[in-house]
Amino acid sequence: GCDKQFFNASVQFSNMDLLLDYINKHSDEFGVAVQYATVGDYFQAVYSRNLTWEIRDSQDFLPYSTEPFQAWTGFYTSRSTLKGIARRASSLLYAGESFFTRYVRKHPASSICKYQALKQLQSLRWAVSEVQHHDGITGTESPKVKDMYMNNLMYGMFNVKKLMASIIFDMNNAKNNGEVYSSIYSKDSAIPDVDQYVVVYNPLAWNITTFVMVSVSHLAMGVYDELGRSVPAQVQSSVESHSTYDLYILVEISGLSYRKYSVKPLNGMQSAFIGRSVKYKRKDITHADQQSQQLLPVVNNCYQVLFDQDTNLMHSITERETNQTVKLTQEFLEYHVNGDVMKGPISDNYLFAANASAVPVSKAVGLEVVSGNLMTEIRQYFYSNVTSQDYIYAVYTRLYTVPEGYDGKLLCHRIEQEYSIGPLELNREAVLRTSTNLNTRQLLYTDSNGYQIQKRPFKAYMNNTVARNYYPMVQTAYIEDDTTRLMLLAERAHGVSSQGNGQVEVMLHRRLWNNLQWDLNYNLTLNDSSVVRPVIWLILGTKAVTNILYRTSGLALEHRPVVMFGALSGDKPKLPRQRQQNSVHGLPVTVPPNLHLQTLSIPGWRYSSDHAEQVDSIRMGKQKQGDADFGRVLLRIKHLYEVGEDPVLSQPVMVNLKSLLKGLGSVMAVEERSLTGTWDVNTLKRWKWKTAQYPSKRFSNSTETSENGIVTVHPKEIRTFFVYFQGQ
């Protein structure tokens, strides 16, 4: 049925019973019989027909349109703040799961109550699952329901942050040494003026080198590792506050491990580099002199980015290894949309219907460049005219320079951009358009469900062409010519399109009101007056190089390190220095660069490993209510690459699970499961479907697991296991 139509199931079944009875009594006349069925019953009936099927290929059905002017492409961007918080919460849950699992395995007799800890994790598991509803993360709910999602997510995040902070204190035997507080990606408050430390957890199963940012109250700062050695860092004026500074710390952390860094204000001497600011005159971009271009270079080891000082806009990017230069400009535009159903098609939470082409938002651009030894930040402010005091749009572009002795491959190869957009005027849809001289033939590539790349050729329609060429960018989008690719990686979902050759535009924010009765009835008018702060990483290079970089870079963006702050007052004992730099959990957990440790958690499930037995016990009312099971560890390993995508990284990978997990203990047994963990794969009987293209071919999973825990993971495959350790 339709949304919001059915509330009382027993009434529905009573009514359907009458229909079923009537149809079945006249089945000879109607030529059909009807019964209630599960999805399994339905597929069993279809399979038993033994038909030959056409393969649709991997293309999806997007975008959806219900009428010529009703393209359902607005929800890709609606409620951008909720989309960002949902992704951040999912990332924190991912980190909290592995952090807790390692802790339980290494500290079975700890002082932290495992059952309470599991409840804290479950509160975020629930909130992250709940917001996946098709009227949740899509932004197509009413404001009060959106607030409910946000409250549940924030409550779950608070619980997991509190759990992670408790674990760190417990592992350092420092429960009474002072106050610990945790702040994930927070820029709200500066570190206080006492001895303090920053704890940084790497939730990925790779060794990472990256920067984390914390707010501090002094310009002269020193950062030191567990052994008291100086750590590369840069401090500079904050983009958000006049009373604090941004401190960027270069961290090197092994897989699923954490490091502690001391952060100290210094008098006279300093160890952190200071970023120096140069502000340039605001430029009128409508009267720029194109003949006398003054170009300002910003350079790191991988890129040279030129800015046009006549407009304060980006001019070009050169990839230094190949010396390939791409002309590249960026501008903010707005689609002006209609809100009156009497005057034409409308935009709402679901729909996008542009009145006309997008309109540039600014006539003047301000520029500030903050440069230091480790990072250069270019701050651009977009004004409606030359004399405006306030701006609605800003871009903060960062290029990183990694010192000798550090692995800076991923850091060097990204141009990080953070945007500030809003509050918008009513019935405006804000996009960032990046225009290049790449001959892309208006072909765009986006990820479908964050998993598989889809080709999105531009299609001309009789009406609503702009909106019907928008697609979801779950995380990845790119354009390319024969040699060069420009890739965009995002930390939340957006709508994306290519409205011209060499162009890619990302819809970043929407604010709408309309008088459609359905929308008014359910308060679905999206009057979103917020300021949004999305982040996109740009990667430019050859197809071969970007293929190698974007999978790992995308995960590095999604699962940025978790940063927690701890403060110890001067008269209390310091935390003991750890001699092991990589991990106080034990050995790090690392997988090869073409694999991703997708899940490492203790679900706490009580159900039987035999799913059929479990279902029978539920049906018979014999479901056991007992304490959570902390002995069963859920593990998923994913291959990141598709067949043929890269000559080396697309190869199958052999993994020794016992060796991989030795930092958690001695593996006693491994059971391979279906993707959800529900079924033992050895009990699954896969059907063989006949296809016209491959009449004799059968598609099936590889499920071989050797006795000694060695498995092979094939391209794009996800393997799921229950793992049991000795001594539990």
Automatic annotation (TrEMBL):
Domain Glycoside hydrolase family 38 central: 70-153
Enzyme class name: hydrolase
Location within or outside the cell: Secreted
InterPro entries: Gal_mutarotase_sf_dom, Glyco_hydro/deAcase_b/a-brl, Glyco_hydro_38_C, Glyco_hydro_38_cen, Glyco_hydro_38_cen_sf, Glyco_hydro_38_N_sf, Glyco_hydro_57/38_cen_sf, Glyco_hydro_b
Gene Ontology terms: biological process: mannose metabolic process
Origin: domain of life: Eukaryota
Cofactor(s) it depends on: Zn(2+)
Family, per entry: Belongs to the glycosyl hydrolase 38 family.
Protein name in the entry: Epididymis-specific alpha-mannosidase
Species assigned in the record: Phalacrocorax carbo (Great cormorant)
